[in-house]
Specification:
Ferric Hydroxamate Uptake Protein, Chain A, domain 1, 5-stranded mixed sheet
């Protein structure tokens, strides 16, 4: 009985010890990868069916027995509307034989031929007499358009005529048509063009590009470079999300290097990009190519300094930098040699280039604005620049408002961007023609809220944020590029931070708020209270273990890095700059494949901060902090010391209990 009691006591003690040891279960989540932009719109050539050029044969009407006739050919040549300088816009509209009475003049012949083929002719008067000024095609000729001299395609346009490719000394009414004549009427878009009415002989003059600085430098620009982070947001889609090659501890980080400059209050760092093994960043009027340790590999002086925001980009071996007054400068990525400088738009006021550059299929898309002491910009330009020489392909301008911190999305063959008056445009990316336009609902201040964020494409939908009402907007884009349904959800009092879309969730931030929104339902899943205004785009990363982490800055001192994970309700401070490098911060974060964050703040400092990898976390006691696979638990926490203390205390309690029983039995004489 005595022995049984001892064993029972020991068994109970061991059972209690074993019961406190927990089991941990690890889980991973996978999110779909994102895809990049590609312009797939086919570029076609206007083709006129030969059958469309055929018309009604013109024959003489009721000639007398002794009246002679003459025959020849009549040709009418038109033009397309709004052609580009490098296009051949001319095409034959009508080519038919004619037979008329001898003595007929060219004007009467022209009137007869065109009337018989349902063309309407309009004459204008001048001090030299009447002249043919406008021709309107028949309604069934849908590929042809009314052309009016001095109006259509510019003030230098006109209708002209020749006989056998010769110019007459008189007007058409003063020239008597001869047998075998070829009478040709043709529309010319500019008097200065070397064009004789034969479309097949017209050669579009090469666009003279005063912007091209060094053609040989472009030809020698590197072709094999790849880029992990080629533009704002890490890709030309500007959706700030990346999958990393390392497993992160989460919210621990170590400073790699800092570069602090001294300058005036108008000197700033650009947003950085990463190409090959290098980091490219601008400070004031100098472009730097940095090694990964922060040392300068190369540097180049620029045409001018950058504006308060400058979102540089990389494509086809070139680093493209927006600079003051709306200019753009392109450098070779290897040697930083200037290839071209795109001039400022011809506007009354100077422009600022604050938007995200988008480069697709050899075209740079740039938004500009004119700002002053008003809440919104009061003028702007959106233009397409040729990447090979910096010449302007097309340009849209407004004297009402501009494009401020915004960025275009390419979706369903249209380029969509918003402006400071809450207007949204869908442009044809090749020509600049407006495919569709809409305006957001009016805010309480009587105006539509400004759009100062990138347009983020996901499927056939665009996500963007409107400023004054703090709303996330989701706009459907139809297959033809027109606008569909708009749906909105309010998450903040105001916001200028671009959204980030990942795996069906939209990460948004604004004044005193960070929120995660369900993209399909457009409802708020989770909201965080923040002290300060987040103007940075949320950086959403998935590490090697499948964990999602979000990093951002807040526009207030100390200009630090903050982070969160959707599974928690807590905001973590990831990195705080040294006291001499603390200041306000609007900058968005970029990240390398191994988890190094890059950004700047208003202390004129550029930071490189390495997030701690899970394998970098030191073990407190040999291998006691590792799982069976030798890894630190996914939570990043090590409970071994607590377990050992609890086990020791329980073991001691068990021994005291046994000893107490033995003493009691000894005193009672039962031992």
């Amino acid at each position: 009985m005595k022995t049984s009691s001892k064993f029972l006591t020991l068994a109970l003690s061991i059972l209690l010890i074993c019961a406190i040891i927990p089991a941990q279960i690890f889980a991973q989540d996978n999110a779909p990868a994102t895809t990049g932009d590609k312009l797939n719109e086919p570029v076609g050539t206007s083709i006129v069916d030969p059958a469309d050029a055929a018309g009604s044969l013109v024959e003489p009407a009721s000639l007398g027995e002794n009246e002679t006739t003459i025959s020849g050919k009549f040709i009418l040549v038109g033009s397309t509307l709004d052609p580009l300088p490098t296009d051949n816009p001319y095409e034959v509209w009508l080519e038919i034989p004619f037979t008329v009475a001898a003595g007929t003049n060219a004007k009467d012949l022209t009137d007869t031929v065109l009337a018989d083929n349902n063309y309407t002719v309009t004459y204008a008067s001048s001090s030299f007499g009447d002249y043919l000024n406008k021709i309107t095609p028949p309604a069934d000729k849908t590929a042809q358009h009314e052309l009016e001299g001095g109006v259509t395609n510019g003030t230098g346009s006109a209708w002209m005529w020749t006989y056998n490719d010769n110019f007459a000394d008189t007007g058409a009414d003063g020239y008597e048509v001869k047998d075998g004549d070829e009478i040709r009427w043709y529309f010319i878009n500019d008097w200065s063009q070397n064009y004789n009415g034969h479309p097949e002989q017209f050669t579009a003059e090469d666009e003279v590009s005063p912007t091209l600085v060094d053609p040989e430098a472009y030809a020698a620009s590197p072709s094999g470079l790849t880029s992990w982070w080629p533009a704002f947001g890490g890709a030309m889609k500007h959706n700030s999300t990346k999958d990393l090659t390392v497993k992160l501890a989460g919210f621990e980080a170590k400073e790699v290097f800092t570069i602090q400059k001294s300058g005036s209050w108008t000197d700033y760092f650009s947003d950085p990009i990463q190409v090959g093994e290098w980091i490219y960043v601008v400070f004031s009027d100098t472009l730097y190519k940095l090694n990964r340790d922060g040392t300068v590999n190369k540097e180049a002086k620029m045409e001018a300094a950058i504006d308060t925001t400058s979102r540089i980009a990389f494509a086809d071996g070139l680093i493209v930098v927006p600079v003051q007054k709306g200019k753009v400068q392109a450098f070779t990525a290897d040697t930083l040699k200037t290839v071209w400088i795109a001039g400022a738009p011809e506007t009354e006021d100077d422009m600022q280039s604050l938007t995200s550059l988008k480069i697709v299929d050899g075209i740079v898309y740039q938004g500009l604005c004119t700002v002053g002491w008003t809440p919104r910009s009061f003028g702007g330009v959106f233009r397409a620049i040729n990447l090979n020489d910096g010449s302007t392909k097309w340009e849209f301008s407004s004297d009402k408002t501009g494009f401020y911190w915004s960025g275009a999305a390419l979706i369903n063959r249209v380029l969509v961007i918003g402006n400071d008056l809450g207007e949204i445009f869908a442009f044809n990316p090749e020509t600049g023609a407006i495919i569709d336009k809409m305006t957001l609902p009016v805010h309480s201040d009587g105006q539509a809220p400004a759009i100062r964020t990138n347009m983020i494409a996901s499927g056939n939908q665009l996500f963007f944020v409107s400023q004054q009402d703090g709303m996330l907007n989701r706009l459907n884009i139809n297959s033809d590029g027109s606008f569909g349904v708009l749906k909105r959800v309010k998450f903040s009092d105001s916001s200028t931070a671009s959204p980030t879309v990942v795996a069906g969730k939209v990460y948004v931030a604004g004044l005193n708020t960070f929120a995660i929104i369900d993209a399909a339902k457009m409802t708020i899943d989770k909201s965080y209270d923040i002290e300060g205004n987040i103007q940075a785009t949320p950086l959403v990363v998935k590490d090697k273990a499948g964990q999602i982490f979000v990093y951002f800055t807040i526009n207030m001192e100390p200009g630090a890095i903050y982070g969160l994970t959707p599974d928690e309700d807590k905001i973590h401070t990831v990195y705080t700059p040294d006291e001499g490098q603390q200041n306000w911060c609007m900058a968005s974060l970029s990240i390398s494949a191994n988890g190094t964050l890059y950004y700047s703040n208003d202390s004129q400092t550029f930071f490189a901060v390495k997030l701690t990898e899970i394998d970098d976390v030191p073990s407190t006691d040999g291998d006691s902090g590792k799982s069976e696979q030798g890894k630190v638990p996914a939570t990043g926490e090590d409970f071994t010391p607590q377990y050992m203390l609890a086990i020791s205390l329980l073991a001691a309690s068990a021994m005291l209990f046994i000893l107490r029983n033995k003493l009691r039995k000894t005193k009672s004489g039962n031992y």
